[in-house]
Amino acid sequence: MPTEPSTGATGADPTKAPMPAGLVVLALSLLLGLQPVTTDLYLPALPGLTQDLGASMAQAQRTLTALLLAFGVSQLVWGPLSDRLGRRPVLLLGLTGYVLASVGGALATDMPTLIVWRALQGAAMGAGVVCARAIVRDLYTPAQGATVMSKGLSGLGVIAFASPPLGGLLAAWFDWHAALLALAVFGALALALVALRFEETLAHKNPHALHGRTLVRTWWLILRNPRFVAFSALSVSSYAGLFTYLGASSFVWMGVLGYSSTQYGLVMMLNAFVYLLGTVLCRRLIARFGLRRTVAMAGVFTLGGGSAMVLLSWLGGPSGWAIAAPMCLFMLGHGIHQPCGQSAAVAPFPQAAGAASALNGFFMMVAAFAVGQWLGLRMDGTVWPLVWGIGFWSALIALSAWTLVQRHASD
Question: What local confidence, expressed as pLDDT, does residue 142 receive?
């Protein structure tokens, strides 16, 4: 792939020098990293937060599900808005809101207030993630998209790698307020980068992007596209599997298996490291085998991890290794499915990248919200809701990778 962003009819203004490739990857890493840092960093503090605020496990789950529901719905607004106004103003607005909501959440004194701030945080976070996906389509050709996205998601992997142990340390040394305040610091760093260094990537704004009739027609065009459906099925099912683990892991590792918050943070760090390896492997496999075969091979990792977790937990009983080892296989596949799924779903829509990115992200968050609701009802003090959930989504991911993607992908 080229070392600099490509420009053209749908890319950045060709009369301007493009941003350095390293700056683009850094911006993508921070913007995409909003999602894991917002969920992963506070997970080690979740049990302490629940106890301190006198809340139930179901209420604690709502701090995640409210965030993700708001995140998903907001993308339907941020996407078309970024097609109308450009990526930079939407990023400045969204990141400012994210910082303010993070501070509000850190200062919350009861669970209902915290849930409201987390919902506002999720809504603001949507601007960063939607624009990140759209930026890839603005600057790069579809053939380069998965490779570029994998670089941004490698940066996300580094952030996800550091988030759980940092959250565990902050929760152990201070309390949950410190873990949530760290999110404001991260958001401020992303805001500073966009304000000081980021240049607009959308060359041709769509003045009709927010018109009701145009918006409905655009969404219908996107939803009818078989490539969008195929790769959205892949990215949605893969994220639902990840969120099953995120939503249940702190209670399983610390509540059922007896790990400390610091030990739990290290386990999550291992998962993030394997995910990072998956994004690197993604680039190598695509260069050698193409997109279609790469996704098919990743399906083997995913199904192998989910099946192994069910079998090992069933045959040997609940244990750390029976969950951690299979989850590493799942995360390796996840590191391939996400860059491929997210970039390929948006690729057919150069003139509506924001709207396509928004729909893809919306469906991922709807799935995550449904998983959170299911976990809130099924968490019973055992490992089985987590284990059966990972097993189910692993099968669905592999099915998507081996059927829909093979039918509609183009290398």
Answer: 61
